[in-house]
Each structure stands twice: as structure tokens, then as C-alpha cells.
Design a protein that fits this description.
This protein is α/β, with parallel strands linked by helices and 292 residues long. It is built from 10 helices and 8 strands. α4 packs antiparallel against α7. The relative contact order is 0.17. Bound molecules: S-adenosylmethionine.
Length: 292
């Protein structure tokens, strides 16, 4: 998946070079939000005190939760994800034998044969599924884990399956997460249910990056295994949160309508992909003055 960077904001804003944002996640995640990290720092810094709890209900590659943990931007982090493959990785890294996973990655010899043999076998244990997931994420086109995703064929500079396989880097990222994992809770659950469970916590903030399937664009539907989300219910739940929140979405009329209906603030941000395509993303929150 391409990394995105800001070129500008419809209101003037900083230009972000994503190369300056530390990559903390072992995933190369479709729809990953590395480019938004500087904005999250600004959002959290605009508050009088760091939140007691940072909640990421649709965690995916969890770059935001990891950044918040490493930079101590909140006292504690709770992240949830419904995809069992992705959850296996977070269970293993946050609650399990992360060092084993790191070592497996470092020792694995990637060839078309070893990849096929490993991914064709159903995983027996959760750590095995975690390893398969990381491998699949690195050898599938666009990092896509959903059924039907194809493998990288030629990759960058004809390096094929090895183009995105950086075993020592991935090992180090996992080992680094071990240092901060006591501040992170991972839950394999529905993000909406998690938001609901924390809705009375005025000392919590929510970073909400759902799969995007609203507005007829259906961009998220081939990227993830779980894409069926009631976006109206998500807005309704966000309106009930005692804590602050920031949502991020693709732009679509339906989302502007929902934002108006719930009296939320919106802010378009523009980004440039690595292939120089201009794209826009929609931020939604209660008050986005900090983003202007
Ligand atoms: C846009 S991605 C999140 C990307 C993430 N912010 C990152 O930077 O890597 C949306 C994620 O929500 C997950 N998801 C879909 N439906 C869900 C649900 N009901 N509850 C929790 N997670 C869900 C998908 O599996 C996917 O990982």
C-alpha cells in the first residue's frame, strides 16, 4: 500500500514527510494512517492534560496506538480489532510470546516454496496464525489479508516476494513494542461495542478509523475481511461518548450528511501519494479548530 503524505490542507496546514514518522507497526496496513500521526500529536497536545485512555476501536496496523504508547501521549491505550488474523498478531505481541514471533520472522527463509508451504497449512496455534498473518501481509499485494488477495509477483526492482520482507526490521519493531506493551490492552472485539463500553469515560479519547464502505465508494470492501459496518450507528455512538473523538473517513456526501445530522465538525485534508496522486481525507470530530 502506498504511503501518503500531506501536501496541504484546504486551510493552510503543515506539509508532512511520512519518512519522518517512526514506523512502529509490524504491518504494512492497507488504509494505514501513518500520514496522520503528526495530526494526532497536535490533537492530543491541544488538550489541557494527556488523556487517561486512548482508544482505537478499529486498530488494524495500530500505528496510532503504538505512537501514543511510545511517545506517552496518553497514560494507557486500548485497541480492538475484529479480524481474527490481525488479532492473532496483537494477542501474541501484546499478551503472548512476542519474542518467539520476532525470532520466527528473523529465521524464516522466504522463497515461493516456503511461503506456499507455510500459508497453505491451516495454523494450529494462535502464535502460528500470528506468524502466518505477518508473512501474508508482507507477500500479498498491497498487504491485503482479505480472501482473494493476490501475491506479489515482481515487486519492487523485481525482488518478488522479498520486496516487502525486512526480517530484522520487523523483529526489532516487535522487540521494541515489548518495552511499552504494559501500557496497551488489546481486545478482539467489535469496535462499536468497545466504544459503547467506554462511552461514559470523559477521560478517554477515541481515534476512530473504520473500514470505509459508506457512500457507495466501497473502497474498504476488498481490503478487509470485515467491512460490514453500520456507519449511522457509529455516528450515533460517537455522539454519546463522554470523551473526545476523532474520526477519519474517505470523502462522501453521506458522511457530510451524517456529520451535519450529529452536529459534528468536519475538516478536509489533502494528501499526496507516493505516485503524486492527490487524494483527500475527511476528519470528523466535535471541534476541529486544532486542525486548522
Ligand atoms: C481503515 S482500517 C484501520 C487502519 C489503522 N488505522 C491503521 O493505521 O493501520 C479499518 C480496520 O477495521 C477493522 N474492522 C472492520 N470492522 C470492524 C469492527 N466491527 N470492529 C473492529 N474492527 C473492525 C478492519 O479489519 C480493519 O483492520
Amino acid at each position: 500500500m502506498e504511503q501518503l503524505s500531506f501536501i496541504d490542507n484546504p486551510q493552510p496546514g503543515p506539509i508532512v514527510n511520512v519518512a519522518t514518522v517512526p514506523q512502529r507497526s509490524p504491518f504494512r496496513y492497507p488504509g494505514g494512517k501513518t500520514w496522520l500521526v503528526p495530526r494526532i500529536r497536535t490533537w492530543l497536545a491541544s488538550r489541557p492534560t494527556p488523556p487517561a485512555e486512548f482508544i482505537e476501536p478499529f486498530a488494524g496496523g495500530a500505528i496510532m496506538s503504538l505512537t501514543v504508547a511510545f511517545e506517552r501521549l496518553a497514560q494507557h491505550i486500548t485497541m480492538s480489532e475484529l479480524d481474527h488474523q490481525v488479532a492473532a498478531v496483537w494477542h501474541t505481541i501484546i499478551n503472548g510470546d512476542a519474542a518467539w514471533l520476532a525470532e520466527c520472522i528473523a529465521q524464516f527463509n522466504v522463497t515461493p516454496e516456503t511461503v506456499a508451504a507455510t500459508l497453505d497449512e491451516p495454523a494450529v496455534t494462535l502464535p502460528d496464525l500470528a506468524f502466518q498473518t505477518i508473512l501474508k501481509n508482507r507477500v500479498n499485494r498491497g498487504g491485503i489479508l482479505a480472501p482473494g488477495a493476490g501475491r506479489i509477483k515482481h515487486g519492487e526492482n523485481g525482488k518478488g516476494l522479498l520486496s516487502r520482507w525486512y526480517p530484522q526490521t520487523l523483529k526489532q519493531r516487535i522487540i521494541d513494542i515489548i518495552e511499552v506493551r504494559d501500557r496497551i490492552r488489546f481486545i478482539e472485539d467489535d469496535g462499536l461495542a468497545v466504544m459503547h463500553n467506554y462511552r461514559d469515560r470523559s477521560d478517554a479519547v477515541f481515534f476512530i478509523d473504520p473500514p470505509y464502505t459508506a457512500g457507495g465508494k466501497r473502497a474498504g470492501s476488498r481490503l478487509y475481511t470485515h467491512t460490514d459496518l453500520d456507519h449511522e450507528a457509529l455516528f450515533r455512538t460517537a455522539a454519546q461518548l463522554a470523551g473526545d473523538f476523532l474520526m477519519t473517513y474517505d470523502t462522501a456526501d453521506e458522511l457530510y450528511d451524517l456529520a451535519r445530522q450529529y452536529n459534528f465538525d468536519t475538516q478536509l485534508v489533502a494528501m499526496k501519494s507516493t505516485h503524486h496522486a492527490e487524494m483527500t481525507e475527511l476528519l470528523i470530530g466535535r471541534d476541529l479548530d486544532w486542525a486548522r
